[in-house]
């Protein structure tokens, strides 16, 4: 399966000028790199600007979306709105959204459905919070989160789904899971998908790792998983380009 590297810029950078410079530097760096898919998810307000920089190599994604298309929902942005500005992906259920914006399994499910309805592909995040969680506990947490997120979603949609295994304790901390634990998580996620749907549908879903990914550790993860969801290192163009290049060789 072709590797997939997703940049989650989170709330960076502050100015449109910086966003444009960063995007153009990444574009310049990954030009001509084959055998890897790349998505960049900037703050939504920069999407119209970045969408004007026409490129084939990188697709744009959103970090979040609302589940209704329109209505009295102050401050929200919907799937069809994102689509108009070049978005092809949406990250759904990121742990920072659960932590700071009270997202629940139920709203994540609504958002996943809304993303698919709008024609967006989804990068669904799942993972345990506690670094000390046992293998069994991690498996249980992943199963519950994934089952709830996918409730009522037909198997045909799995072609548009990527799952990012993001242990919360590894995000922004410099800590990562061991390659062995990443492999266990991937196999377990596949098993959950096979139980919920069937093997061919489960096989279509790319499984990424997220949490303190950088150019030094990416090769470990792309040997085992289908790619990575990159936070901090994705707003450093040099570092992100290195990550993409290493993934393209995996
Ligand atoms: P860091 O790469 O900064 O740890 O963030 C990971 C993440 O949350 C990506 O969505």
UniProtKB/TrEMBL annotation:
Tell me the Pfam families matching this sequence. Answer: TIM
The catalytic residues are 94 (electrophile), 166 (proton acceptor)
Q: What is its EC number?
A: 5.3.1.1
One GO CC term on file: cytosol
What is the annotated localization of this protein?
Cytoplasm
Which keywords has UniProt assigned to this entry?
Answer: Cytoplasm, Gluconeogenesis, Glycolysis, Isomerase
Query: Which PROSITE patterns does the record match to this protein?
Result: TIM_1, TIM_2
Return the InterPro entries for the record: Aldolase_TIM, TIM_sf, TrioseP_Isoase_bac/euk, Triosephosphate_isomerase, Triosephosphate_isomerase_AS
- Show the catalytic activity: D-glyceraldehyde 3-phosphate = dihydroxyacetone phosphate
Q: Which GO terms describe its biological process?
A: gluconeogenesis; glyceraldehyde-3-phosphate biosynthetic process; glycerol catabolic process; glycolytic process
Say yes or no: keyword Cytoplasm present.
yes
NCBIfam families, A to Z: tim (TIGR00419)
Name assigned to this protein: Triosephosphate isomerase
Q: Which organism is it from?
A: Candidatus Azambacteria bacterium RIFCSPHIGHO2_02_46_12
Q: Which gene encodes it?
A: tpiA
């Amino acid at each position: 399966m072709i590797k997939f590297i997703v940049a989650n810029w989170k709330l960076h950078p502050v100015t449109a000028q910086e966003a444009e410079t960063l995007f153009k530097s990444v574009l310049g760096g990954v030009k001509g790199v084959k055998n890897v898919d790349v998505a960049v998810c900037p703050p939504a307000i920069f999407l119209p600007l970045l969408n004007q920089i026409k490129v084939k190599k990188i697709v744009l994604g959103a970090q979040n979306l609302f589940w209704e298309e329109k209505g009295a929902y102050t401050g929200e942005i919907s799937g069809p709105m994102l689509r108009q500005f070049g978005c092809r992906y949406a990250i759904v259920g990121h742990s920072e959204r659960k932590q700071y914006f009270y997202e629940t399994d139920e709203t994540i499910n609504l958002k996943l459905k809304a993303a698919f309805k709008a024609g967006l592909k989804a990068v669904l995040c799942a993972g345990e919070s506690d670094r000390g969680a046992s293998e069994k506990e991690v498996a249980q947490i992943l199963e519950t989160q994934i089952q709830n997120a996918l409730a009522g979603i037909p198997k045909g949609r799995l072609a548009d789904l990527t799952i990012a295994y993001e242990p919360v304790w590894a995000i922004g901390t410099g800590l990562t899971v061991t390659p062995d634990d990443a492999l266990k998580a991937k196999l377990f996620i596949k098993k959950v998908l096979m139980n919920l749907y069937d093997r061919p549908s489960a096989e279509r879903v790319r499984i990424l790792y997220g949490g303190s990914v950088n150019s030094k550790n990416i090769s470990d993860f792309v040997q085992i998983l289908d790619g990575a969801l990159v936070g901090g290192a994705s707003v450093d163009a040099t570092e992100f380009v290195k990550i993409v290049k290493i993934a393209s060789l995996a």
